[in-house]
From TrEMBL, chains A, B:
Substrate binds at residues 231-238, 286. Residues 6-224 form the 6-phosphofructo-2-kinase domain. GO terms for molecular function: 6-phosphofructo-2-kinase activity; ATP binding; fructose-2,6-bisphosphate 2-phosphatase activity. This is fructose-2,6-bisphosphate 2-phosphatase.
Length: 455, 455
């Protein structure tokens, strides 16, 4: 019997067809959806038509007039780019068992959309249109600023030139853009977001997975904010190498707790030092003790942030587990993401119970989370798009504050180490020994900036 | 630090103002929302204007022409009913710390709605309009049939007379009904459901709690279905009076597992014997063994259906807990819903982890759930509206199949006892002794039909 998870999808295959003028945030939303679904073990991929078009053209040939609907050469190239993207997507569905494919393009006309619709239906794929509609000028200018600095079409070009060219390109699309409409598109499955989530129109959403996507999108906002992550300070069990339990901080752990307010201030910088954070902890003493010197009024305790439940192994050291349950010890090393402790949890179980936390985090602004090694790995994996086979092995040392700053197409990461020693709780594959506190952080750091190209 | 739960609401107070013609399912949805929120410990109440109107009038004076907008006497009484309902609601917000009040009435005109809006704003209550719009004749006739048999306006009256009078009443409302509109009502927070959830329009939803309500409503469907609940068969630990663990069934437990397919068939009746159920179990062996003889192909395993985690008390008998942790034992008896086992869970914790299960159950059709005593109590409490102080004390014996059949305004309950003896796992307050297997079921049975009056 397979373990149920949020990823349970009953052979459904969905194609999310993005709809919207340039600079409406299509790529941003498409990439967020992919990241969220991958984190839930739902095989997803974004197919960006702009990237295909760039392979067929030179940058100097694609100034705004290239996008004129009267420009026949341009039209031909753009049609070819769509064809190739769609072909690759269909191949991915068929050969790689894709579940949610996202076609990231303007798909501006009913004619284009009905072609895609037909193609999906022929291939037994559920089409769902996701339109981003926006008439808020500030929002559009903000999106243009993001695209300018990240799109291969404009990177390294003069800023004013890029803005003007991009505005010219938008004008070309506006000539023939047809918005989704409850009357004209009554038979289609679609979501239309007006000015981010200020109005939402949902038509004929039926399957579980479609509704998950809709709900996720409804929770997004675009206000700038940061998320801080920290493990609790060193605990009594950390000192003895035992896992689990609900023990107090060690003397050095208390020192970290007292230092934490200063680290947070440092991460905020002088200009933002009065920013008000909300603090989330688990229900375990060591996270609450770590939070106890923080000057913020709003502190919330979540059971869902409790450490991975080690079941029968709770309170044991890795050496003891290796001796007492050698098969389990090996099984966990072989597939740490899926391995569930006897009477306890797996990393996959944690992801399922963290899902409402992620949803709430997307809604909130500045949150500081003090939690545990395995939970923090799963949260970090969500924000930084770390694959499942790597996330349980990530190095997240004690006495280190991590600040994540999600931007349009990348997440900035700042790590501040407190100058307070702590044991290492990092166990490498194939050994029951813990590290010496200075394990190579290379593989983590290389992921610290995730970036993706826009249209 | 208070324990975070889904019920966390940051001093928000919300008034859900229902909008819709008669027979659109307003009362049904209003009552479901209240039940869901109460289950999540969010203080909620429905104020049904029809009930207030009935206190002011005689039934024989309220035939359809009473609702004619030209009938001044009728108008006056109906305005008075609204006034009284709103007054009581405001009193409830102010004096009883209400969080979500629902005003269940047609609220057919912009004029009426703007009066309510003004009143809410004056009282610092967030107004959210929930319109049920429907032009599907079959759906309307089905709703009329429900109202006819349950509304005090029609109960015991001739069926044809009731239908005609009610259709007449709807016509009166149609004369001046104004639907919610994205243009005309652009400044209001509203949800409009068109033909149940076939189209959904969401305008200016901002707060967490508002979005929870929207998401819940989006998951509802009205197809007829049943839900079956059973505990696992008697387990080895049941025999020794120990709690928790992951042990096999006892010999009698296996007999129950073999009998279960027959009980399910019996509950389906001859006519529906080919109904295809989906079986959900926990990840623990005793529930999967109990499911193992069921002939249904789709069986899913949910970690969220695992038994309440007794933490340090896992594997102990109640006597042992009373001896070893006397203060905890007493604390649990004093407030069983809130008491969290050392390193384990409380009933409240279970409700939080069951919330996605409830959402999924609302979406699904025929589901048979095989789970554990505490989890089953929480699920049952949701469907049957059992208050928190009672739910942890409910009698849910072993070797008994429960079938719940949600109807418009009540849930039918069928309990089928297998003729296979089992120990009692029922512990009464103030003792560590388990019952003898034939505890008084009175207090449970009296709740077995929940019904509410419609408009």
């Amino acid at each position: 019997m397979p373990v149920y998870s949020v990823s349970h999808v009953e052979n459904v295959r969905i194609c999310v067809i993005m709809v919207g003028l340039p600079a409406r945030g299509k790529s941003l939303i498409a990439q967020k959806i992919v990241r969220y679904l991958l984190w839930l073990s739902i095989k997803s991929k974004c197919f960006n038509v702009g990237s295909y078009r760039r392979l067929l053209t030179l940058r100097e040939d694609t100034t705004f007039d290239f996008f004129d609907p009267e420009n026949e050469a341009g039209l031909k190239v753009r049609q070819e780019a769509v064809n190739q993207a769609v072909k690759d997507m269909m191949k991915w569905f068929a050969e790689e068992n894709g579940v949610v494919g996202i076609l990231d393009a303007t798909n501006s006309t009913r004619n284009r959309r009905s072609q895609l619709l037909k193609l999906c239906r022929e291939n037994l794929i559920e089409p769902i249109f996701l339109e981003l509609w926006c008439d808020d000028k500030d929002l559009i200018l903000q999106n243009i600023a993001d695209v300018k600095t990240t799109s291969p079409d404009y990177v390294d070009l003069d800023s004013e030139y890029a803005t003007n060219d991009f505005l010219g390109r938008i004008k070309q699309y506006e000539k023939y853009y047809e918005t989704m409409d409850l009357a004209a598109d009554a038979d289609l499955t679609f979501i239309k977001l007006v000015n981010v989530t200020s109005q939402i129109i949902v038509n004929r959403i039926e399957s579980y997975l479609e509704l998950r996507i809709v709900y996720y999108v409804m929770n997004l906002h675009i206000k700038p904010r940061s998320i801080w992550l920290s493990r609790h300070g060193e605990s009594q069990y950390n000192l003895t190498g035992q896992i689990g339990g609900d023990l107090d901080l060690s003397e050095r752990g208390w020192r970290y707790a007292k230092k934490l307010p200063e680290l947070v201030l440092k991460s905020l910088g002088e200009e933002h030092k009065h920013t008000n954070l909300t603090v989330w902890t688990s229900t375990l003493k060591r996270t609450q003790q770590t939070a106890s010197f923080l000057p913020y009024q709003k502190k919330l305790e979540w059971k869902a942030l409790d450490e991975l439940d080690a079941g029968e192994c709770d309170g044991m050291t890795y050496e003891e587990i290796e001796t007492e349950f050698p098969d389990d010890f090996k099984a966990r090393d072989d597939n740490k993401y899926e391995y569930r402790y006897r009477g306890g949890e797996s990393y996959r179980d944690i992801v399922i119970r963290l899902e409402p936390i992620i949803m709430e985090l997307e809604r909130q602004e500045n949150i500081l989370i003090i939690t545990h090694q395995a939970v923090l790995r799963c949260l970090y994996a969500y924000f930084m798009n770390v694959p499942q086979e790597e996330s349980p092995w990530m190095l997240i040392p004690l006495h280190t504050l991590i600040k994540l700053e999600p931007r349009a197409y990348l997440t900035l990461v700042l790590r501040i180490k407190a100058d307070i020693p702590a044991v290492s709780t990092y166990k490498e594959k194939g050994t029951s020994q813990l590290g010496e506190g200075s394990v190579n952080e290379g593989s983590v750091k290389s992921r610290d900036l995730i970036s993706n190209s826009a249209t």
